Every structure is written in C-alpha cells, then in structure tokens.
C-alpha cells in the first residue's frame, strides 16, 4: 500500500529513478490489468572484481513472458512479451549480461504480486534462488520451469499469507494442548537466593 503511494508520487514528480523504483512503478502501472501477472526477478553479477545487483519486473500474460525495468543498458530492462518459457527469458538476460562481460552468479525469482493496490502483503522477492554459476543450463531450465508451472497453477503462496486470525476468548492459550505423556512444567522457579 505504501509502495503504491510512492509510485503515485514518482509519476507526479517525474524524478530520476533506479531499477528498484522502476519495479515498483511497473507494479503500480499494471495494477489495473488482472490478466498480467507480475513478479520480481533479480540478478547478482560479477565484473572486474565487483558484484552488482539488478532487479526487473517479470511479467506473464497470454502464455508469454517478458519484463519491465530500468537500466543504463537497453537489453537489461524491458523485454517484450515473446518468451515462451521463464527460462528463455532468464537465459536472454544472461546472454545480455555476457555482452557487457558480466557473469551472472545468482538469479532470484519472487512470487506474483497481488493486484490489490491497498494490499498490506509484502512483496516476496526471492522465493526461488538459483546459484546459476554452479549449475548446468539444463538444471537451471528444469528448476525454472518447475517453479513457473507451480506459479501458474498458483500452488506457491507467499510465506506471509497466513489464514485470518481468529478472535480468541480472553484467558485461552493459542498453543496446542499438551499430550498426556508430556512432562509437566514446574509450577514455580527455584529460588536462587
């Protein structure tokens, strides 16, 4: 909810933004399009002894993947909705990074972001973390496609999405009842004086 307020302010002020703000802005601008599923994709790369982090908003619509984002490099941000699989999209990013002599070390994929603009559910930034520098492309493809299938089927749920809290009567404990065979706790502490 607070991030959507920030995005609204970004559109009013037209200030320069970085990749993270671009992801939030992408979420804000696609909120009214329920057929477009949005999820964060972040990359950790290595170049010339330094590590770099970058994030884009992955999008899925009508059986195709693409992305929205911001970067100094045109091929490291927006990708058209033309990729048949999530792994094709990720490998396209990896190939783009290679052009700039960056080696991709890790890829993190988050869960779908809800379309409710006033949601208090936090964004799940890293539901799947792949150490791609230590994996074969076939392994990466397999992991990505399993994850993408589960997301499309809405099997994966945010860890913060708990069932609604039930109002409990005063004085009642929420902990499960102790089994008969469980040892009973001491009623009082030992006096150490």
UniProtKB/TrEMBL annotation:
Coiled coil: none
GO cellular component assignments: cytoplasm
Biased composition (Basic residues): 171-193
Region described as Disordered: 155-193
Any GO BP annotation: regulation of angiogenesis
Pfam families per record: Vasohibin (PF14822)
Matching InterPro entries: VASH1
Catalytic residue list: 19, 54, 71
Name of the molecule in the record: VASH2 protein
Source species of the chain: Certhia brachydactyla
């Amino acid at each position: 909810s607070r991030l959507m307020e920030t995005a609204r302010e970004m559109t009013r002020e037209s200030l320069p933004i970085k990749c993270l703000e671009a992801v939030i802005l992408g979420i804000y601008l696609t909120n009214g399009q329920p057929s477009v599923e949005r999820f964060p994709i972040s990359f950790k790369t290595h170049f010339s002894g330094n590590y770099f982090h970058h994030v884009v908003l992955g999008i899925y619509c009508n059986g195709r993947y693409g992305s929205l984002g911001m970067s100094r490099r045109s091929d490291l941000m927006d990708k058209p909705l033309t990729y048949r699989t999530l792994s094709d999209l990720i490998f396209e990013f990896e190939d783009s990074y290679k052009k700039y002599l960056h080696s991709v070390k890790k890829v993190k994929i988050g869960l779908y972001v809800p379309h409710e603009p006033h949601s208090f559910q936090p964004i799940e930034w890293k539901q799947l973390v792949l150490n791609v520098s230590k994996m074969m492309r076939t392994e990466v493809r397999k992991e990505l496609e399993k994850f993408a299938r589960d997301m499309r089927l809405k099997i994966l749920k945010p860890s913060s999405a708990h069932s609604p809290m039930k109002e409990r009567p005063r004085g009642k404990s929420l902990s499960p009842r102790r089994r008969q065979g469980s040892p009973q706790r001491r009623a009082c502490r030992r006096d150490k004086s």
